Structures are given as C-alpha cells and as structure tokens.
Amino acid sequence: MDKAKEAVATTAGLRGVAAASSSISDVNGDKGELIYQGYDIHDLAQQSTFEEVVFLLWHKRLPTRAELEELKSSLAEHYDLSVEIVALLRTFPREADPIDVLRTAVSALEFHDSTARDLSRAASLKTAIKLTAQFPALVAASDRLRRGLEPIKANKGQNIATNFLYLLRGELPSAEEAHIFDVCLILHADHELNASTFAARVIAGTLATMYAAVTGAIAALSGPLHGGANTQVMKTLLEIGEVDNVESYIKKALAEKRKIMGFGHAVYRTEDPRATHLRQFSKELGEQAGDTKWYEMSRKVEEVMKREKGLNANVDFFSASVYYMMGIPLDLYTPIFAVSRISGWTGHILEQYADNKLIRPRAEYIGARDLTYVPIDERA
Ligand SMILES: CC(C)(COP(=O)(O)OP(=O)(O)OC[C@H]1O[C@@H](n2cnc3c(N)ncnc32)[C@H](O)[C@@H]1OP(=O)(O)O)[C@@H](O)C(=O)NCCC(=O)NCCS
C-alpha cells in the first residue's frame, strides 16, 4: 500500500472520523448533548438570544452588553439588499426553489464586495456580518417577489428573528412568536462538522473566499438528507392528514423501505436536544391556535418510529410543524435553516482561515490495476 495511505481507514460517510479541530461546538451522540463554545444548548435556548450566540460562535466567548449592541448595529447596517441584488432576484423564475435562489444570490453578493478576497480576520468578520444580515432579507425578498409583492425595507430596530418575520409578512410578529423564532435560530446555529459545515471548511481550506465557502455550504444543506429534511417532514404530515392515519402510513412506508424524514441521526443515538425545545414549541403554538392536530400527529409519528425502528426525532421533525403553524411556506424551511446556520458556517470558516491546512484526504482505490491500453479501433 502507498505509504501515505497507511493511516487511512475507510469509514463509509466518514462516520466517527475527526476531520478538523474546532472549539465551536460539540455533539455527544450517546448522551444527547450539544454545546456551543462550552455552553449547553439548553441554557442558550432558555437564556440567550440569536445575536448573542452569533457573537459566541465568532469570538469564542459571550459578549458584554456594549459588544452585543455594537454587533446588532453592525448587522442592522447590512439588513437591506442592494438595488443590484433585488434586480437579480427579479430575474429568477418564480417556481425556483428558494434554497437555490439563496445559493445563487449569495454567490452573486461577492461581486458587490470589493473586500471579498481579503481573508484577514478583521475583513472576514465584516463579511460574516454582511452575510448574516443579508440572509433574512434574501429569503424574504425572493418569497415576496414570487408572490407578486415588492420587497420591503428592514425594520432596523429589530433583531434578526423579528425582522425576518416582518420582512416576510409586512407586519411585526407577536412578541411570543418572535421569541419562538429566535430560539429556533439559536437551535440551528451550529452543529459541529455536519455536511454543510464540512463543505464550507473544505472550500475555505483552499483559501477561496467566504462567499464561495458559504455558497457551497448552502448547496450541501439543500439535500433532503440534511437541511432539506424539514420541508419533507411537513409534506409527510400533510400527506398523512389525520392522527388516525399515522400508524398505518408509517408502517407501510417502513415496509416499503422508505425513510421517514426528521428521524435518525448520524451522531445522536438518543434524543436530539434541539428536538426537546421544538417539540414544546409545536405544542404551545398548537394550543394557542386552539388546534393541536399537527403536534398530536407528530407525537404519534414519534411513538411509532420509536417502537418500530428505535429511531428518535431530530431537529428537522418538530421545526416543520412549528414553522407551519407560523404560516411560513413549506419551501422556506430549509432557507430558514440557512438564516441560522450562516452563523456557524462563518464561525467555522473564520476558524479554518486562522489555522489553515488544505483539506485533502485520500481515497481507498477499489478499481483495476495494470490494464493494457488498447487503441480505440482495436477494442471489441
Ligand atoms: C440522518 C441520516 C442520513 C443518518 O443516517 P445514518 O447514520 O447514515 O444511517 P443510515 O441512513 O445508514 O441508516 C441506518 C439504518 O436506519 C434506517 N434509518 C435511518 N434513518 C431512517 C429514517 N429516517 N426512516 C427510516 N429508516 C431510517 C436505515 O434505513 C438503515 O436501516 P437498515 O440498516 O435496515 O438499512 C438518516 O437517519 C436519514 O436519512 N434520516 C432522514 C433524513 C433526515 O431527517 N435528515 C436530517 C438529519 S438532522
């Protein structure tokens, strides 16, 4: 065997392989624990805000009040889209998938940033601020345009969660809804070396720009096995239709070897700690609306999946009914994941730039060797 490959152990899907050192977040799959920079996700979900978590992921510590205010005002400065980007959004087909629209628009943002190729920490932090501030506006504006509505200006006094819902609907959400959405953003902010974050680090590792790395991360997030799962969850719930149909629907799907989206995880072997909060929000929103149907159906799906397959709900399962009850269109669930995860992606890109090594693993070659080349006219 090639000497350089001796240390290589083939692991399908790189499961269990530590492919980077990071202090940003850690998942303990056996205990069902998630920490961001040392802080337990439950503490952050109960006590923190998304902007505070953004600071934590980028600076590896919680902000002082003054630092938090400074971050919020820097974000607000970049809340609105440029005329050029809105003009670009208008050229996209109305039926385009919003996550693909986001990916293409983010790639184009780089053309309007003269500092994009400056990978110093100071310049990269500014890019991270711009990206984090622009994501909600991009998602909301493209949704309004496809509905035949004009994008509206941001409400600069509001945080990202409130502002996103405002940009989408044209009216401010209730304080409770804004709080639930803010916690959703906290819960999705980072998750160690998930597929999209790994993609971002691989791209950043070539010293490509932050825009390039984030564009690749959005592409990775879009797949149904990753961030695309939440939309599929709601489609499944709508297809099931009633609590009474759950048992037969799930059993049939499993018998046909179909995967039920929102269940199972590459790392967690027990409850995904993020699902704990989202389950509660699903219940609360249902009770407030006087219709707990989606929550009850979700609980029943959970029960059947646990019994039949021993699988737990992941972050995407209850976020689906939460967003549905907030009246958010199904195909925006994955872009909303990105509105949050941009904080983690940029944190990881900053970390990668700070101590960069090109990421270039080896492959276990399983093809043929020593074949004799046959000229094309002599081939059978
Ligand atoms: C997340 C996921 C890709 C992790 O998968 P993994 O650790 O690579 O495990 P595998 O896909 O190899 O699945 C292992 C076994 O569990 C089954 N399984 C895993 N997730 C399942 C699901 N959601 N529904 C039904 N069966 C599932 C597989 O069919 C497989 O069974 P088998 O051994 O009988 O073939 C997988 O659980 C999945 O596809 N879930 C649905 C998509 C989803 O919710 N993604 C968001 C993740 S946050």
Q: Helix coverage percent of residues?
A: 55-70%
The total beta strand count reads 3
Cofactors, ions and other ligands in the entry = coenzyme A
Biggest pleated sheet: 3 strands, antiparallel
Instruction: Please state the structural category.
Output: mainly alpha
- Average pLDDT, rounded to a whole number, is 96
Uncertain runs with pLDDT below 50, 5 residues or more?
none
Strand order of the largest sheet: 1-2-3
Please give a structural write-up:
The model has no long low-confidence stretch (mean pLDDT 96). The chain has a 3-stranded antiparallel β-sheet. With 380 residues, it is mainly alpha-helical. Helix 7 packs across helix 8 and helix 13 runs antiparallel to helix 14. The longest helix has 26 residues. The protein is built from 16 helices and 3 strands. The site of coenzyme A (COA) has 17 residues, from helix 15. The site of coenzyme A has 17 residues, from helix 15.
Keywords:
mainly alpha, 380 residues, three-stranded antiparallel sheet, binds coenzyme A, 16 helices
Brief write-up:
This protein has 380 residues and is mainly α. 56% of the residues lie in helices and 3% in strands.
Blueprint (SSEs and pairs):
Elements lengths: L24 E4 L4 E4 L2 E2 H7 L2 H10 L5 H13 L5 H9 L6 H12 L11 H26 L13 H10 L5 H14 L6 H10 L5 H12 L7 H12 L5 H10 L17 H17 L3 H17 L5 H11 L7 H22 L26
Antiparallel strand pairs: 1-2, 2-3
Helix pairs in contact: 1-8, 2-16, 3-6, 5-6, 5-10, 6-7, 6-16, 7-8, 8-16, 9-10, 9-16, 10-16, 11-15, 12-14, 13-14, 13-15
